[in-house]
Amino acid sequence: MKFSIFCVFLYPLTIISAMKGNKPKLVDKSTGSLTLQVSQTARLKCNFLSWKREWKMVWKVNGKVVQIKKNKRFRQRNGKSSLLRIKRVVKADSGMYECIASNDYGSVSKLLNLTVVGELKPQREHGKGPPRLTKGISPQLVTWPASGDLKLRCPADGEPRLKYQWFKDGKVVNYRRLDAKFNSTRWYLRIKTAVPSDNGIYKCVVSNRLGNISHEIKLTVIENGPVRPVLSTQFPVNKTARVGGNVTFKCIELFSPILTHYRWLHWNRLPPNYPDLGFGDDPPSFNSTYYTEINPLHYQSFPVLKAEGKYGGSVLLTNVTKEDEGMYTCLISNFIGKSWRSAFLRVLNKGDKPNLVDKSADLLTLEVGETARLKCKFYSWKPEWKMVWKMNGKVIQIKNNKRLRPRNGRSSLLRIKALVKADSGMYECIASNDYGSVRKLLNLTVVGELKPRGEHRKGPPWFTEAKKPRFVAWPASADMILRCPADGEPPLKYQWFKDGKVLNHRRRLDPKFNSTRWYLRIRTAVPSDNGFYQCVVSNRLGSISHKIKLTVIEKGPVRPVLSAQFPVNKTAQVGDNVSFQCIELFSPILTEYKWLHWNRLPPSYPDLGFGDDPLLFNSTYYTVINPVHYHSFSVQKAEGKYGGRVLLTNVTKEDEGMYTCLISNHVGKGWKSAFLRVLNEGFIRAGE
């Protein structure tokens, strides 16, 4: 009986003792073999069925312990998958390596034979020669979780300056969610809050004057599993309104595979840790002294066209007052996390003084004989406001000088033709009304001498300006002139080409454009105007040409731009259906559009007099057509262009007149008009 009892207690003790005393066990004990080229990285691995921190790991080579701490090229990692990494291997690293894992109950080992072949290639001197990729470059295949930030790396070396350019699926990448400091000197591309639409083949091209290299990376964003929501960084946008006006803020959810909840907050005062709003992972407190949650009755949802999986939400503020000023935040959340974007509202009193867009002093240097255009830009302008120009503190007598010509308005201008050195000085534009004034300084320097032109108007063509620009950078939505002045025996013929093709001069160019004009005027420049322009001047004795590279800079908010080809005049019979359409060529920020039917033309026609004030919808001159009759449409093969049309059904003689497509954003407005003629029934049109 005693023996029986002893056996009952001994048997489990024996099992427990054996379990606690197990020595390490390898997944595979067979000898491994690895052959590498000189300067590659070796990764010698030993995989175990399990691992405990108190166990010991020792690496040997040819029977001697590897002194890892004394060699910076060696790095050891212990664990279930133990590793010995050797960077930039040399032939002396060849040998039989052994990993030995041990504990109090025994040890186990595995052999790995490393063979290093080849010769060390001579390295180029740093900062010299054509570009070459260096260590740390991103692999050719990258998989990344949705909603996470990532960086595609393309480090290179070579003779400066190195220029980096990134492409996605063959096109230059845009700036959505990229580092705000992204430029052509950065060797990496940062993508914030990755979404599935970021999938594609990315290519970095590194170049200098001696050559270029490229590297392709395939990015796959994994959207499986719950992630926090992602908001577009383009919304909401800052707004400026007048007391009594209506304001709408919008935000767009780029990606969230699970249900989200969103709300709008109005901040009474900014938190001490701004721009970090401090929501963290805790739900926002609705009794906060910093902000107030806006009543959801003012929320509206809207679809985002051509954006599968994207959703939009807006908040409408009606009859705003000065108390509505401040920061507004769109906050969306799901059970994983939160995302938020903010914008500011500025409310102007009806008696605000003029406000400059940029108050800093401008510096301008021009050659003798050129034309100076001194500009002062305002957020708004009214005809009753006054503008005065001064030079070196004295009021300029513009009427007494035919070379001077002013233009007042939102973009005020003082033009000085045929500059002389005496025109150099400190200019000052002063705008004022009953509520105050604002001023801006512009320093003009005129250099050079008036060069003799030789015998005037004889011989083959020759350029009259010694220094002609070859590269021009211009802000989007601004008007510009490409100059090509020449002289020679008349008649001189001017012809313009863009990228080798005769220029289509109808769109946004001066209606008076012809072969006798020495300049090319481009109105409301857009990115599609980028390219190489060439002017060819010829007469019976010969020809000359000059090339100019134009780059339109689209950073920053600009007013919208409408195609000059739409809408077009229409003729219809009583009872017919008629549609007018307009196309928005470029606007990087959200726009709003309306159609107007003019009951009678304003006295200022063709200037419709919208200016920068909000539309007066009780005008006796026009009627705003009900948005029920509006329709949007896509413009094929025109990335970034959008179209809107209005449909008039069963027209009558009362529908005759002018129709205007008006689009606007918080920066400004754009509009185009066309006329409708309605014929009585039975009227036979020519050709029918």
Quick structural overview:
The chain is mainly beta and 688 residues long. The chain is built from one helix and 52 strands.
Characterise the protein shown here:
This protein has 1 helix and 52 strands. It has 688 residues and is mainly beta. It has 6 domains: 32-117, Sandwich (Immunoglobulin-like), CATH 2.60.40; 132-222, Sandwich (Immunoglobulin-like); 230-348, Immunoglobulin-like (Sandwich); 362-447, Immunoglobulin-like, CATH 2.60.40.10; 462-553, Sandwich (Immunoglobulin-like), CATH 2.60.40; 561-679, Immunoglobulin-like (Sandwich), CATH 2.60.40. The chain has a 5-stranded mixed sheet, with no helix packed on it. A 5-stranded mixed sheet has the order 10-17-16-13-14, with no helix packed on it. A hairpin with a 7-residue loop joins β23 and β24. The longest helix has 19 residues, at 2-20.
List the topology elements.
Elements: H1 2-20, E1 32-37, E2 42-47, E3 56-61, E4 64-65, E5 74-77, E6 81-86, E7 95-103, E8 106-117, E9 132-133, E10 141-145, E11 150-153, E12 156-157, E13 163-168, E14 171-172, E15 188-191, E16 200-208, E17 211-222, E18 230-231, E19 239-242, E20 247-255, E21 261-267, E22 291-293, E23 299-303, E24 311-317, E25 326-333, E26 338-348, E27 362-367, E28 372-377, E29 386-391, E30 394-395, E31 404-407, E32 411-416, E33 425-433, E34 436-447, E35 462-463, E36 471-475, E37 480-483, E38 486-487, E39 493-498, E40 501-502, E41 519-522, E42 531-539, E43 542-553, E44 561-562, E45 570-573, E46 578-586, E47 592-598, E48 622-624, E49 630-634, E50 642-648, E51 657-664, E52 669-679
Parallel strand pairs: 1-8, 10-17, 19-26, 27-34, 36-43, 45-52
Antiparallel strand pairs: 2-6, 3-4, 3-7, 5-6, 7-8, 9-12, 11-15, 13-14, 13-16, 16-17, 18-20, 20-24, 21-22, 21-25, 23-24, 25-26, 28-32, 29-30, 29-33, 31-32, 33-34, 35-38, 37-41, 39-40, 39-42, 42-43, 44-46, 46-50, 47-48, 47-51, 49-50, 51-52
